[in-house]
Design a protein that fits this description.
Blueprint: H1 11-35, H2 47-58, E1 62-66, H3 68-77, H4 89-100, E2 105-110, E3 116-120, E4 123-124, E5 127-128
Helix pairs in contact: 1-2, 3-4
């Protein structure tokens, strides 16, 4: 704080804060969407699972979704077996941890549409982290 009562932070500081807020808002919207009515052949995540993800968001994690087919592609590059027919959150987490590192992947669960919802760290190896498309 400057002596005149004005802050001395630059524009970049506020930009970073805004990005963090946007990631949190987007992640909470994803959780809220999962709590709404079920669709398709899969059930929505349990309230305890959604609360666990909310805790990860509060600790700075970002919630991202990824399809079973994409996880299967990453499994091939990581030399792991992964069947989209018998895929589980535990097997998905194993693949993602091998591909992106254990410190990047915090939690995994199924979404109501059958994809996987993943709580990830905001950075991976010093860079911003989002799943490649």
């Amino acid at each position: 704080m400057a002596t005149n009562g004005k802050t001395t932070s630059g524009k970049a500081t506020y930009t970073n804060v805004c990005k963090a807020f946007q990631y949190k808002i987007s992640s909470f919207k994803t959780l809220c969407n999962q709590a709404k009515a079920t669709t398709g052949n899969f059930t929505r995540p349990k309230p305890s699972t959604l609360n666990s993800f909310a805790n990860w968001i509060n600790k700075g994690a970002i919630v991202q979704t990824v399809s079973c087919n994409q996880v299967a592609k990453w499994a091939k590059t990581a030399n792991c077996n992964f069947s989209t027919k018998t895929a589980s959150p535990a097997s998905c987490k194993t693949i993602l941890c091998k591909k992106f590192g254990k410190t990047s992947i915090k939690a995994v669960c199924r979404t109501k549409s059958g994809n996987f919802m993943v709580a990830t760290s905001p950075t991976c190896k010093g860079r911003g982290f989002t799943f490649p498309k």
